[in-house]
């Protein structure tokens, strides 16, 4: 069945145990990270424009309480690419992914994000600000193994286990990709600079535990079983409609039980964190030409707490 964006790319609805509403604490924690940035941007807009009315839009992906997520639409090129022997079993970019396939994901993100910026530019008043928060990666090398490689690699292993048990057809798994790309700060900055539409005021990368309910500073997961369940519920809340559309709803409980078990085993060995990128930008004034213009970076460089720690 072909992917349908409206049908497949949304969060799990309702308010049940596996819903996005009940499993969006990672987004809640991200909001508290960006709250000072949001407050600063609001003050700057009000001071500069002195508007009679201010409009704030939350461009989220669900009806949940936070809606601070962005994922890229799967490209026709990626969906139409046959997996090589090297890529068999992969549903996301890993260190074993072929360079050709990884490049397709990168190019699709570049197109998607450039279009996203263009549309937001058209919506904002001059001097308006936009703050983006999304899952990224710490390193420039897209094939370098890190958080998302493990997170989605464990999901791929869980799907493969259902194939081994005869619950899924191998062909179904081989034709499945996650329509997700986690960029580096360098990639994001390059696309914004190339667009010439925004000044970047702030760029930051912070990390948050896979388990959104683990608020400890320890490097050890004290209850890996509970953390595995928590992580599985969070991923299910985001991925359930997409997985159900491709594989059918009957596998969901079995799949995410297996996934929770595999995540728990992973966390016994390593406490793993998401890398989250925060980007604050201001729309550039175009002048009388009506073209995109002005300096691309505020004061030459964006401020950042992790100044391009991407090597």
TrEMBL record:
Q: Provide a Gene Ontology MF annotation, just one.
A: methyltransferase activity
List the residue ranges forming a coiled coil, or say none.
none
Determine if Hydrolase is one of this entry's keywords: no
Q: Among its keywords, does the record have Ion transport?
A: no
Q: Which Gene3D superfamilies match?
A: Methyltransferase, alpha-helical capping domain, Vaccinia Virus protein VP39
Which keywords label this protein? Answer: Magnesium, Metal-binding
Sorted alphabetically, the Gene Ontology BP terms of this entry are: methylation
Q: Where is this region: Disordered?
A: 292-311
The family line of this record is: Belongs to the methyltransferase superfamily. Type-7 methyltransferase family. SABATH subfamily.
Name of the featured protein: Anthranilate O-methyltransferase 2-like
Q: Which organism is it from?
A: Panicum miliaceum
């Amino acid at each position: 069945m072909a992917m349908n964006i409206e049908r497949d790319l949304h969060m799990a609805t309702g308010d049940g145990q596996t819903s996005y509403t009940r499993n969006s604490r990672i987004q809640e924690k991200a909001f508290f990270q960006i709250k000072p940035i949001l407050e600063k941007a609001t003050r700057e807009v009000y001071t500069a424009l002195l508007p009679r009315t201010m409009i704030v839009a939350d461009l989220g992906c669900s009806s949940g309480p936070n809606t601070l997520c962005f994922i890229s639409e799967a490209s026709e090129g990626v969906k139409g690419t046959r997996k090589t022997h090297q890529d068999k079993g992969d549903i996301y970019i890993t260190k074993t992914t072929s360079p050709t396939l990884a490049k397709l994901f990168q190019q699709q993100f570049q197109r998607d994000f450039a279009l996203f910026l263009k549309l937001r530019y058209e919506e904002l008043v001059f001097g308006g600000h936009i703050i983006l928060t999304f899952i990224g990666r710490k390193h420039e090398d897209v094939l370098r193994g890190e958080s998302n490689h493990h997170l989605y690699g464990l999901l791929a292993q869980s799907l493969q286990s259902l194939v081994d048990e005869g619950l899924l057809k191998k062909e179904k798994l081989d034709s499945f990709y996650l329509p997700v790309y986690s960029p580096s700060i360098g990639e994001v900055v390059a696309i914004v600079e190339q667009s010439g539409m925004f000044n970047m005021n702030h760029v930051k990368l912070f990390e948050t535990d896979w388990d959104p309910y683990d608020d400890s500073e320890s490097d050890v997961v004290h209850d890996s079983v509970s953390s595995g369940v928590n992580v599985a519920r969070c991923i299910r809340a985001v991925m359930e409609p997409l997985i159900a559309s491709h594989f059918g709803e009957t596998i969901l409980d079995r799949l995410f039980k297996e996934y929770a078990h595999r995540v728990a085993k992973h966390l016994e060995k390593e406490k793993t964190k998401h890398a989250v990128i925060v980007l604050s930008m201001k729309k550039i004034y175009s002048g009388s030409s009506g073209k995109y213009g002005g300096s691309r970076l505020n004061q030459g460089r964006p401020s950042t707490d992790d100044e391009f720690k991407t090597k």
